[in-house]
Amino acid sequence: MKFHVSQLGLFDVSRKKGPLLSETLTPKDARYTMSNHERRFLKDAKQWWPTVSWRRYAPISILVHKDLGPSVWYAPFYCVKAKLVIVLDTRDAFPYTVSGRNAALYAEHGYTVLYFSEDLAVDSDPSGWTALLTLVGARL
Predict the structure, then answer these.
(1) For residue 85, what are the CA distances in angstroms to 90, 112, 140?
(2) How far apart are CA 10 and CA 23, in angstroms?
(3) Backbone torsions φ then ψ of 94, nearest 5 degrees
(4) Residue 133 near residue 122 (C-beta atoms within 8 A)
(5) Which of 9, 70, 92, 108 has a CA between 20 and 30 Å from the CA of residue 64?
(6) Does 34 or 83 have the greater pLDDT score?
(7) Does the global pTM surpass 0.90?
(8) CB 98 within 8 Å of CB 72
């Protein structure tokens, strides 16, 4: 039996669009709701690198154990051309995100993971945000 997500209680009926941030999100829901850092990164990325396309919460499949098959995690920002994964925030509502602590494992499969979740005290420091974008640009 299929249910519409609004029937499952994931959406606040008083809002026009989007799930409640306190609920567990699906990848599709995570693509449509952005944190302030994600929104800022996407806006700045379009200005800094207008020809680079970013996939939001794209599935990244890696083979961790040969017997168990591939493991799928989701990249908040993924550049296919450069195999670059950007993680800006840890979202408790979406626990299936690529983790920075597994960067070596992703590197074995050709991915580069830039994990800024703990370093984002750059809101009040514009030079810190510029340094973050410069680091991303160096990997593209």
Answers:
(1) 14, 6, 11
(2) 6
(3) -135, 90
(4) no
(5) 92
(6) 83
(7) no
(8) no
